[in-house]
Structure formats: C-alpha cells, structure tokens
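Technical note accompanying the year-one report. For the benefit of new consortium partners, we illustrate the data format agreed upon in the data management plan: each record pairs a sequence with a structure-token string. No post-processing was applied to the example shown here.
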Amino acid sequence: MRSFPRFLAVRVFLATAWLAGVGSVSISSFASAYNGRPKLVVIIVIDQFRGDYLERYRDQFGDAGFRFLLDHGAYFSNCNYNYANTRTAPGHATLFTGAYSNGHGIAANQWWDQKKKRMVTSVEDDTTRLIGVEGDKPGSSPHNLLADTLGDELKLATQGKSRVFGISMKDRAAILPAGFSGDAAYWIDPQTGAWVTSTYYRNELPRWVQDFNSTRPEKFWDRDWKDAQGVMLRSTAHRKRKDGSEAGFYEVVGSTTFGNEYEFAFAKELVVYENVGRGPATDLLSISLSPNDILGHQVGPDSPELQQMALDLDRQLADFINFVGHQIGLADVWIALSADHGVSSLPDQVRKLRIPAANLDTAKIEASLNAAIASRFSAHSAAYVKLDFPLAWLDPDAFATAHVREHDAETAVGEAMRQAGLLDFFTKSQLAAGEAPNTPLGRKYLNSFTPEGSWYVMGVPEIYTVGTGKGTDHNSPYNYDTHVPLAIYGLPFQAGTYRISVEPVDLVPTLASLLGINAPTHSVGRVLTEAFAPQHHGTAAPGAHSGEPQP
C-alpha cells in the first residue's frame, strides 16, 4: 500500500508544475532544448509490456504511478508498431529514431555474419572492449544503426551540452536508445548483476558505478517475492541450472519484481552523481526495464506473476517519479512511457478457447529446412540456414558451394518454411525491390526490411504460433505483438485519453518538435499535435491540464 508522504509529494510537485510552468509563460514558447527547458526528458520503455495491460489493471493501480501518466499526461491507447519484426533491438531502435527497420537498419536482435561464420548480436563490436568485468571481452556499441536518434539530435542542437544516458539489463536496450553520441550506456553482466559499459563510451567505470557494484547486487539475492495476499511467487535464492552451473543474476533476479527495483535504484544513482537535469541544456535519460520480458516468456501475459509485476512496477514507478520531482521538479521534466513489443498469450491457453495456436520446436524446423535445401541443391548436408523463428538467416558461402544465387536460395528456403508450417514468407531480395502486396501486412514487412546482415527470409507465422517448445514469444505482425502503450507527461501536453491510431515512431518527432530541434535523420512519424495543450499567455488554472481532450 502506498505511503501517504509519497502520494502527497507527487501531488505537491504536480501542483508546482502547474503553477510554475503555466502561470507566467506561454505553453507554446515554454520548451526549448537550447535553454534547458525542460531540464530532463525521461523515456521509460518496459520490455514486453502489451498495450492492454494498462487498461486491464487500471483500477488496481494507485494514483502516483501509471495513473499519474494516464490521468495527467496524454495517453494514446491505440498505439501499434507498423512492422513485423517485433523484437527488443528493433523496438528500441524504432522508438528512439522514429523510423522502422527499413530506416534504422536493426531488424533483429541477432543475425548471421558471413565473415565470422556465426550469429552476431545487434550491438556487439569487436573494436571495443567491455568495462566492468574481468578479462578482455568484446564490447558493444551502436555501430550498426543506420539512423541517428533523439539523443543525437539533442547533442547536435546544443553543441554537446545536452547529456544522454541509457540503462537496461540488456546491452541492446541501453545502447540503441543512447544513440551514437550518448554520454554513457550501462547494462548488467548477466552472471553477477554488476553494471558494465564498453570502451565506446569510456575506459573505466565512474567511481559511483564501482561503489554501486561493490554493494548493491548482493542485496537483491535471497529475497522472497510475494503477492498482496502474501502468497509466495518466486525466490531469488541462489540455484543451479540443469547442467550444474550457477544460475546468474539476470535469470534469477531479473525474472522477479526485484529486477525493476534494481534498475530504478541504479537510475537514481545516475541522476544524482551525474547531475542529470542540472545542466544548461535539456538532458535525456532512457530507462529500459527488462524483467517483464524475462518473466513473460516463461509464464505468458495472463499469469498471476505478470499481474503482480505490473502492480509492483506501478509502485516503483511512483517512487521514481517522486524522486525526480524532488531532484529536479516536475515542472521541468517530461516523462514518456512505451514498450518495445507485446507478446502472444500462451498457446496452450489459447487452444483451450478453440483458437488456433501452437508451440513449435525451432531446432527441429531448422533441421528440416537444412535437410530440404541439401536435398534440393546438393548431395552433401550443410548448415545452410540458422532459424530465429520465424526469421531464417542464410549462409551465402554454403549456397555458393552449391552454385545457388541469393534470389533462388531465399525462395527455396521460403518454400521450405511454408512446407514446415509457416503461413507465407518474404525474402530479402523481394523486400529490397519493394515487391510486397499493397496491404497492411505487406507494408509491415516492407518496414521490416534491412540491408544489413546476410541473406534472409522473413516467415509469416500462423496466429498465436511461437517458436519455443514451452512458454511464449513475440516477433509476429499481429496486434498482440504490435500493440504497446504510449503516454507522455509534461506541461505542453493536454491530459486525456486519445483513442486515435498512432505509432511508436510518432514519439520522437513529437518531442523534437516541442524541443525546437530536428527530428532524427530517418524519422517517419508525425507530430501528435492533437495532444498539445492550448496555446495562450497569462494565468491558467490547474484544471487546464485535466480532463478529456477537446474535440
């Protein structure tokens, strides 16, 4: 149950925002990144947080967390990604570039690297090294992005005076939002939970990060996670994996509510020790919360654990908003909330309602694809395809040995995927030429195209069909994967629920327009002017920022 002082503090800062921000200046002239108004933009991305969750649990939320954004911000309840590759890396790149994969180039979390002859991640970079862990390990950077980000444009507009930070448990979810020019991106070492970065940003961890790592991770082990009735949900006790190895921080703590608590604790330290929001220009902080995704893959969107995580996150969000209010003042802060993708319901539960659904075995499908290709083109078996369901990455060298060109190879793999149970497919060659039906589905796959990586085929799965033997997944073009929340709080925004169709690509051009800076290089979203507060001079009553939007 939320404590009275925290609730009161949020109300006080909200009133301060109205009085200090609206009473003496024009809303239209209030914002300018060049003079540090607002002082800070916070973008919170909840990994695998479907758009319907906010409505599902709204009557269980308190006043100062999610409902602070829903009641006092512009809330867009019908926000959908207009592409098919609903994964973490593409989602974060899309939110911060205002472009889809055909603009920013990030189409997947990982892809086949022809030179290295293996799958590589969207952010791994052999020219950098990890900082914060023992050994000489390859680091990560945003070098695969083909577009710049909101943070990059802030940096350009203010000649580097704005500061930009990204944090997440996942490297890709910290790095891609921070863009090329970010002051730092931090993510955790999966085994220990220690916060790390790479030499792309700095050659050593700041002292405050070292101090955090020396004491905080251990405090999140050996804790019991219970629901409101005291029922035990999970424990973060140390445990062994099936192979006998020690399970790491990411999988143990990261799959509980304590993972979100851990990220917010680090975010607070960053704000304090880096003096975020206290410079001469607008700063940007991205916080990507990973635990919802880690847990959601295991238990699905309708489980008691997911419900409790949402309710706990509501309280944690309220605490963080209260903290930002104390540190900076909510009159000088904008807060945006969204997600990188949704998720399918558990296929087992879907089938009980007589709706088609399936858990597939990706390894078996991959083996059948390679066998089919070997039978068609060669007398010898080879690893032609690496499957990240429903996306197939092809090894061009394997096909070259069989004297097969890209178009023919991709078409053959696509046909084999259809035989293996997928609904349809789109090849890289096909998408590069713009050859897709002029339909909503066709446009989603055109938006999913990237010139990066090797040859590939994007399979179209049946509804509620995932490539895991148990649990659930995302990476489809269907609404359960594309529907995400979008809410923006700040003085320029007219509070209310907006039920028009919008897209995540609309967030950064909207913020850029209000900040008076250029939108990112490849941004295709529109400015959400319907959510702007009325432009006027003089004194405005606090009620000017409440209620439903005007027609």
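Partners are asked to follow this layout when depositing records. Residues 510 and 528 are 6 Å apart (CA to CA).
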